[in-house]
Task: inverse folding
């Protein structure tokens, strides 16, 4: 839906497009939709009146070109390792993101679109399409659950012993806005069906390193499902333990980390044009590796801790 509106509302700022989507002013078949809604033939779209003021103020600052670590590239697609703290696109108070910066860095490219999204504070594997056929093919794989997305998350709390090594969560999720207009998600019976599988990788007193396997792709899905289990992600500013986050972010804290510990480390799919199986991996960033190393060191000195042979990060 967001891509459709950006095409038909030429000259309207992206921030305004996302604002009218969040506020529910855009309707499809008389119902509210969000930016991820996929239009179908025959849909009736209602767009509110939009007035474009004449430009009487100076142009906005130009988008700076940026180069990100490339994990894979060919004529159809581009896969990068997105750092934490960088939005994937502009909007919601963000002037620009990865897609705008990549387009600026590659002015010769005729087509470059995001295939999927990552939260601003999440790092890791991010796909972009360089051809419309590739974009359509990759979206079909995502919609038909033919991709395998895996994340590393370090959580605070006790992984229950009766959960074993694997815990599936199928709690429905509902998106809403806070009184300040901030987007949030909560578990709610009439929410969208959501499914995440968590695999225990390593466990320490008060912390656990998990592998999260996405079966659906809802907004903030991993973060909200873990908070619902009583295992908030370390450093999560929306759904986490705020006092703990502040303590871990202090200079000299050990273990210490100044960001959310959520990293998209692996993605499996088939090439949208050739059909060849592909796997992309982004190594755990240094600041997250350091946090795990500090936890291990503390537990080794105390003679505690437990690890699994599965999916051990380097």
Result:
């Amino acid at each position: 839906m967001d891509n459709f509106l950006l095409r038909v509302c030429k000259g309207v700022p992206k921030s305004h497009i996302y604002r009218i989507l969040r506020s529910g002013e855009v309707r499809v078949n008389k119902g509210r939709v969000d930016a991820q809604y996929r239009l179908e033939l025959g849909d009736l779209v209602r767009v509110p009146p939009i007035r474009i003021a004449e430009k009487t103020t100076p142009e906005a600052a130009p988008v700076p070109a940026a180069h990100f670590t490339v994990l894979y590239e060919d004529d159809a697609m581009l896969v990068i390792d997105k750092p934490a703290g960088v939005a994937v696109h502009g909007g919601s108070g963000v002037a620009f993101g990865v897609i705008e910066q990549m387009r600026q860095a590659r002015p010769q490219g005729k087509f470059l679109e995001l295939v999927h999204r990552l939260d601003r504070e999440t790092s890791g594997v991010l796909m972009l399409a360089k051809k419309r056929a590739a974009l359509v093919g990759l979206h079909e794989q995502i919609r038909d659950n033919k991709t395998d997305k895996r994340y590393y998350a370090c959580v605070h709390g006790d992984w229950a012993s009766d959960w074993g090594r694997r815990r599936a969560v199928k709690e429905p999720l509902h998106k809403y806005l806070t009184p300040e207009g901030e987007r949030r998600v909560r578990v709610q019976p009439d929410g969208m069906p959501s499914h995440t599988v968590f695999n225990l990788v390593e466990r320490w007193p008060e912390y656990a390193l998990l592998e999260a396997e996405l079966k659906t792709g809802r907004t903030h899905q991993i973060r909200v499902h873990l908070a619902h289990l009583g295992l908030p992600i370390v450093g999560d500013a929306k759904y986490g333990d705020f006092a703990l986050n502040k303590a871990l972010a202090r200079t000299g804290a050990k273990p210490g980390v100044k960001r959310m510990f959520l990293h998209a480390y692996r993605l499996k799919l088939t090439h949208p044009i050739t059909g060849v199986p592909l796997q992309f991996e982004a190594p755990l960033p240094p600041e997250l590796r350091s946090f795990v190393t500090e936890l291990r060191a503390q537990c080794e000195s105390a003679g505690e801790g437990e690890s699994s042979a599965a999916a051990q990060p380097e």
